[in-house]
Amino acid sequence: MTHLRDAMLYLTLCGIGSIVNAQTVYRCGPGGHSYSYVPCPEGRAVDVGDRRSVLERQYAQRAAATDRRLASEMERERVAREREPKPNAGSLGMGPRNDDDQPTKAKKPKDFKSKGPAPVKPPKKPPPSAAGTSSTADPSSRRAPG
Length: 146
Hints:
single chain, mainly alpha, 2 helices, 3 strands, about 35% helix, elongated
């Protein structure tokens, strides 16, 4: 079914390509940034014919056919990989478990002894500083007492 659809699309595009080659295209607008099949003021005709040689066109067609064949093979391989059964991730704790898997309880280390809460330490006292000097100032910049 997809091959028929691809063939129809290819023939349609080839037909459109031959129609485009048979018509004159005009470059229009400020700076020539738009194209039209209808002549426009200050527009100029543009040659849109295929400038490739017969050999170049045949090479491009063969390359496109090879790309389509490779893409089809890659799709078949991907679909086959997706159909393969997935490994059981339940034993890694990452997915649903099998009925064979038994839940395990967390065990405490053998030498674990609760020491209780840690004692609260009193805050450190700032170093004595000279009157009128910040306690955060460099000691060499402090004023001498007196």
